[in-house]
Design goal:
Largest sheet: none
Shape: elongated
Helix content: 40-55%
Bound molecules: zinc ion
Radius of gyration: 24 Å
Structural class: mainly alpha
Distance between the termini: 71 Å
Strand content: under 5%
Length: 73
């Protein structure tokens, strides 16, 4: 029997450290805003609600729109 096995740490010492919600919340909010902006640009930016005038953004996102199953034309 080896000495390392005899001195193995207790299971409680191996548990991951909890991450406080205050540290995660700003990053979760940031990721949510970025994802919503991306969702808008890929799926909804066209016609009367268009942020970027013209068809350039629509044509640029066209393949991604079809790939994600958004109704297009
Ligand atoms: Zn299309």
């Amino acid at each position: 029997m080896s000495q390392a096995a005899a001195h193995a740490p207790a299971p409680a010492a191996l548990a991951p450290a909890p991450i406080p919600l205050r540290e995660v919340a700003p990053w979760a909010l940031f990721a949510g805003v970025v994802l919503l902006a991306l969702l808008y640009l890929v799926g909804l930016d066209q016609g009367a609600t268009s942020v970027v005038p013209g068809e350039m953004l629509h044509e640029f996102m066209h393949d991604g729109r079809h790939l994600l199953g958004f109704p297009c034309h």
